[in-house]
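Folding Query — how this chain folds
Tokens — whole-number codes for backbone shape
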Amino acid sequence: MRITRLLAVGLTLVLVASGCASEPSLEEAAAELQKDTKRLETDDVFKNPLKKLRILQRPDKDLPCGGEKVKRVLRMTADYARADQSLDSHLDQAQRLMENTLSQILDYKVAYDISQVDAPEGRFIHGSKEVGVMVNVYVAPEAPTWRLHAETACLPR
């Protein structure tokens, strides 16, 4: 009986310890966010001057987020000119284009939210990576169409 308890406690401690070790490092997450910035800047869609890509904040500085932890942040905007189409069609196309870019080019796991279908006030896109990076994009009915905010989790230096 004691041996079973000791084995159970030991196994629990090993699992807890391995769970802590699996937390991504700031170096990994920051490098991934830097790579995402470069990919956006060189992507066929966003390197087009008509998209007016603007990097508002590059993920090259540690930002404090409580205690000894810091994070990195990327903020950018870009525009998707509205052709002769309805607002709903414009937002649908802009949303699909960004979802495809996030999932296929930048390798984010995108959460699809069906409740936003046909929302005239804009759409929100949420994505994440296992390395500890999260992204939120607001697809707006007015320029700039895309307002992207990506950041690492709060991680120790």
Summary: The chain has a mean pLDDT of 87.
